[in-house]
Amino acid sequence: xxxxxxxxxxxxxxxxxxxxxxxxxxxxxxxxxxxxxxxxxxxxxxxxxxxxxxxxxxxxxxxxxxxxxxxxxxxxxxxxxxxxxxxxxxxxxxxxxxxxxxxxxxxxxxxxxxxxxxxxxxxxxxxxxxxxxxxxxxxxxxxxxxxxxxxxxxxxxxxxxxxxxxxxxxxxxxxxxxxxxxxxxxxxxxxxxxxxxxxxxxxxxxxxxxxxxxxxxxxxxxxxxxxxxxxxxxxxxxxxxxxxxxxxxxxxxxxxxxxxxxxxxxxxxxxxxxxxxxxxxxxxxxxxxxxxxxxxxxxxxxxxxxxxxxxxxxxxxxxxxxxxxxxxxxxxxxxxxxxxxxxxxxxxxxxxxxxxxxxxxxxxxxxxxxxxxxxxxxxxxxxxxxx
Length: 387
Hints:
Layout: H1 3-15, H2 17-21, E1 34-38, H3 53-68, H4 78-95, H5 108-118, H6 139-153, H7 164-176, E2 183-185, E3 188-190, H8 192-199, E4 206-210, E5 219-222, E6 233-236, H9 239-251, E7 256-260, E8 267-268, E9 273-274, H10 286-294, H11 306-314, E10 322-331, E11 337-342, E12 355-359, H12 360-366, E13 367-373, H13 379-385
């Protein structure tokens, strides 16, 4: 070896030791997942700068149901649901003189209510982007609409005029555009209602289910979360039954619309994995951080009980943050169950292409509610619910 080559190698070892060690030491991955069951679905969308996860998740759920029903792949418009949900939400807000929820948020049943009344429409016909931006952005629109309903709710003069709803409709038309009354799709002319009817999709086939002890099990109640502005009724079952419903649905080819808490630090946005660690309060020392970075392995999780669910709901550490779409079941290298979850935050720079892995314990603890087809509920549970 020539002297200059020896000198370069010496400098590399002293100055750049990581380069030399990189070949000999490979950083372990936290998780190695294997898909156990996967349901065919449509591509991941991006809700961008909007709070409309409820519509994106439920639209994906409906698209997936159409595939299951043998109706083909149709990319539907989430903004169609948003467009037709805002005015009823505004009317509700004004009726309560501003003492109600108004904003971008919603629940899975909001999309079903739109389908029931108006149908649905392909995204290529109506994308709800009428302001010339490349991505959805509802910040300004939501502010404008909130200002309108606040002004109406506080109106002076003894009565509210019958014209205020036209102001809301006009603003929605400016920002989102007005859906066509008729459109051509795949060689046929449809209205949004006739298109939905042509697929055989029936929103009455679907129910929302939750699991909390402050109401009787196997009954229905108005779930007390802000985005349930329409006061829809949810079926209430024990958590073990809720998990049976989820598993039975997925294993039989039916996906699940999921509503839950994603604000926890263990809903890891970098790694796209969500767990409930056994020791959630462990101090994050520098030594611990370094050890975790060098040897990352799956953490042991808590065994989540019904009591834990109720406590976190009552103390608001489980809150109604986000809706996603469960489209499969997976297991990690230790055999632990995870739910393969389709998100609506796009695919760019996402570890699993816009999907998430939520552990069974995370789902047990952080699920607010689910929506499923009635036929996927195990018969013994369905009988108790009177379905």
